[in-house]
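Two entries, shown back to back:
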Amino acid sequence: MDLQKQTEPRASVAELRASDADRDRIADILREALAEGRLTAEEHAERVEGVLAARTVGELDAFVRDLPAAHHRHAPAPNRPPAGAIPADPDDSMVAVFSNSVRKGRWRAGRRIHAYAIFGSVEIDLSEALFEYQQVVIKAVSVFGNVEVRVPENVSLRGTGGGVLGNFEVDTLDSADPDAPVVYIDGWAVLGNIEGRPKRGRIVADILDRVHRKVDRSLRRHLDR
């Protein structure tokens, strides 16, 4: 056992490599600051150029540290949706018995999705999906099988479940946008595997569209003064 390796400190959040979603988030704050008159056009252009060249999260945060929007925080998504918020009957079911079932690409995600993998594999890729509802529950059951869920980087993700001689692993994500979709994975793995992770580089585009429209309206009001 390498004790020295175990005691090495983990990188802080500021030292983490920045993703495209991180750059988009900072660019949105800068765009809104321009619309509100907090930045001049020259300052905005200079900072956007720096955002594109930044490599770490800490470098990105430096460009918005003096702006109010950077310090606004919202409550994280709850671990489970409120009682009665999601119907008990599924909008969509995926079953793989000694087979594979895949849902990916541009598709409409319902409020509840059931996935059953019995000696099979289920793949649910939400990275390009259309979210008609803010809350999506995925009930996953794996028996000698595999259920894999991939989500965009800019949504919130929660997982509740476990395994019997199996693996249940869901990353926790918190979106910077309070209106972003929240995906809940509720599952149980028996000699199987259930996992949920973000798909790097993928974002929910319509969230950005809403932000852009809001900023464009603010910019027009500012220019009409």
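entry 2 starts here
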Amino acid sequence: MKMTSMQATVSVLSRLLNWPQAKLWILLGGLALSSCQTPDIPPQRAINIQQQWELEPGDQIGEHLVVGSLGDISIQLKHQSLRVPFPGKVEPSTIEQCVIYSTPEVPAYLFRFCGLQRPKFGPVKAGQKMGNGKQIQFATLRRQPDGTWIIVEPSTGVLERAISKHPGSDKTEPEQNEREQVKSPKIPADKTSIN
């Protein structure tokens, strides 16, 4: 009876490693199955932004991708982890290399992070790693009554919590003044909730 090349490989490896062939087959089968699986990535979140500028994230200049625009803040992370500020959800954006983070703590706002490597998608807990990168671009978006979004002044409180090296040192519940920092100074407080 002839051996296939795979059977011959398993036989040689089992002798070299001093493992029974059954264990080696299980290991190789597990590796083959795990390499074929793709992580569950939620659908991209499309956001209709009222403001339009000539250059926006996702545009191309020659062969280069635009990852920041008017209203974005650039932060050097130096491959440090970006942490989830409050419990919420991370979704891929329709803009390449960007994610959208939302939290029920500030429901009328979305936060866009561009430049993250290996982002964590789905429901996230406060302090959990969201991803990392050399440099990120951060934008705060506020929902308008007509369902569109506008880019507003970035939230220092949210950004500070996201780039904190010690996620356990912060309280998991936002203080009222942090909620106020997220609000645009030009919008009255009574107009910030969306039903």
